[in-house]
Structure formats: structure tokens, C-alpha cells
Design brief:
four-stranded antiparallel β-sheet; 4 strands; globular
């Protein structure tokens, strides 16, 4: 039953990230509690720079799945506040 909460939060996070300039979400993402996305071609940051910034400045862990590609996974300790924090952190970095 808890997984449904993660899926709902993943949809909320995807909606917020869709408005962030510089991010390109996979078509139809999320399908589960995971969001897959890429950096837009015009973003000057490298994959590792984004990961380091998000973790060092905000404590947000991001999975790398390829060159300029990421995976965000929502689970039991990711709450609504963490979703908002993640959206705001990406807006701050890429805005």
C-alpha cells in the first residue's frame, strides 16, 4: 500500500521538474516511483557537477544512468517537503 504514496509523490515531483528549464523528462515519466530525465543540450554543467551540487548543497542524491541522464527514486523517507526541496534545488541550479 505504501508504494502508491511513492507513485503519487513521483508524479508531483515530475510535474515540478517539468517546469525546470534545462531538464528533459522522459516521455510519460514517471511510470512508477522513478523519474528518468536528462540535461538539455544547452546546459553547460556536466553530469558530475549536477550530482555534486545537488548532494553537497542540498543533500539530494541523484542516480546517474548515462551521459547527462539521471534517475530519481522516491521511497518511504521521501516526503512532500523533500519533493518541494528537490524541485527548488533544480530551479536554483538551472534557473
Amino acid at each position: 500500500g505504501r508504494l502508491g504514496e511513492d507513485h503519487a509523490r513521483a508524479r508531483k515531483l515530475a510535474e515540478g521538474l517539468a517546469d525546470v528549464s534545462g531538464l528533459v523528462l522522459d516521455e510519460g515519466s514517471p511510470h512508477t516511483n522513478m523519474i528518468f530525465m536528462s540535461l538539455a543540450d544547452d546546459v553547460a554543467y556536466s553530469t558530475s557537477e549536477v550530482v555534486a551540487h545537488m548532494y553537497n548543497m542540498h543533500g539530494i542524491q541523484i542516480g546517474v544512468t548515462g551521459k547527462r541522464r539521471y534517475r530519481l527514486v522516491l521511497h518511504y523517507w521521501i516526503d512532500d517537503e523533500a519533493v518541494a526541496k528537490t524541485v527548488n534545488a533544480f530551479k536554483e541550479l538551472l534557473g
